TrEMBL record:
<feature type="domain" description="3-dehydroquinate synthase N-terminal">
    <location>
        <begin position="62"/>
        <end position="174"/>
    </location>
</feature>
<dbReference type="InterPro" id="IPR030960">
    <property type="entry name" value="DHQS/DOIS_N"/>
</dbReference>
<dbReference type="GO" id="GO:0005737">
    <property type="term" value="C:cytoplasm"/>
</dbReference>
<dbReference type="InterPro" id="IPR050071">
    <property type="entry name" value="Dehydroquinate_synthase"/>
</dbReference>
<dbReference type="GO" id="GO:0003856">
    <property type="term" value="F:3-dehydroquinate synthase activity"/>
</dbReference>
<dbReference type="InterPro" id="IPR056179">
    <property type="entry name" value="DHQS_C"/>
</dbReference>
<dbReference type="GO" id="GO:0009423">
    <property type="term" value="P:chorismate biosynthetic process"/>
</dbReference>
<dbReference type="GO" id="GO:0046872">
    <property type="term" value="F:metal ion binding"/>
</dbReference>
<protein>
    <recommendedName>
        <fullName>3-dehydroquinate synthase</fullName>
        <ecNumber>4.2.3.4</ecNumber>
    </recommendedName>
</protein>
<keyword id="KW-0862">Zinc</keyword>
<dbReference type="InterPro" id="IPR030963">
    <property type="entry name" value="DHQ_synth_fam"/>
</dbReference>
<comment type="function">
    <text>Catalyzes the conversion of 3-deoxy-D-arabino-heptulosonate 7-phosphate (DAHP) to dehydroquinate (DHQ).</text>
</comment>
<keyword id="KW-0170">Cobalt</keyword>
<dbReference type="InterPro" id="IPR016037">
    <property type="entry name" value="DHQ_synth_AroB"/>
</dbReference>
<keyword id="KW-0479">Metal-binding</keyword>
<dbReference type="Pfam" id="PF24621">
    <property type="entry name" value="DHQS_C"/>
</dbReference>
<keyword id="KW-0520">NAD</keyword>
Amino acid sequence: MEFIQANNYPIHFNEKAYEALNKHLKETKYSKIFIIVDTQTNEHCAPHFLPLLETDLTVEIIEFESGEINKNIDTCIEIWKVLTELGADRKSLVINLGGGVVTDLGGFVASTFKRGLDFIHIPTTLLSMVDASVGGKTGVDLGNLKNQIGVINVPLMVLIDTHYLETLPQNEMRSGLAEMLKHGLIYDRQYWEQFLDLTSLDFDTLDTLIYRSVEIKNEIVKQDPTEKNIRKALNFGHTLGHAIEGYFLDHEAKKTLLHGEAIAIGMILESYICLRKNLISEAEYIQIKKTIQTIYEDVDFETSDIDPILELLIHDKKNEYGLIQFALIDGIGKIIINQSVENNLILDAFKDYKS
């Protein structure tokens, strides 16, 4: 697969990814290499990656506990301290080996330590391959508020190796699939239609689908790197999805949802809103809802859950001038941004989901 050129950095795939990395290491004079991992990727992914790294430099691994609950400023502080203790300087390189939590947090750590170190992303989950590692967003959560603290700062390169997916549980694969579904819904109807029947999906097909998903996100981000306009299209399903994810994360009685699981719910809810606003047909809505519900288990919402979820919408980072902003599909494959939605319509969407 040919590399994809993003804004100021390349995205390399499979074997060619390591060739590009090692070529860069030979051509650039770094002082040390720091690999940021979580407990899962240190166990399952580092053993594959380290033998492929060609360097005589000192390599240090910095590990933190896996899980969205650890994507916070306290974890950053601990990593900044370790970087300091291990003698990291402005000529050090950070490699983030992991899923979206690692790439988001590791990118933020590197972007802010000593006012910025070079960093490279090696996403190891389907979700991070098609979403988190592409586009330059870095950051951490503030309590149960998703991605409230962070900066947009691009890596030197992104290396996508689908070998890492062989260690991924099915629920993590489904989580990443949600973003791929979203890319089809907002940008490419033909791409969306490839997901209507997943019975014949194999790794070769998945490679091609991942490549197209990265292309779609990159095509959008290149037009609007700092999310002032069309990049907001990528927020479809995320306005309600992030609020649901944050609410379930903060309540011990609730089963924590993976990002993609929450976004899948968000896409159903926001598709219903599109239906009510006459942006999509009933047939399109039924197709979207049926396809997503075939892949993801339904989640039970109590009546008492809805108001706290709506309250979290107020803090969504996509809001402007105190108004909640939605990106909505205008027919499958097209998007409109900066849409306001009345609370009663959101409540109706939850009722329809529960039905």
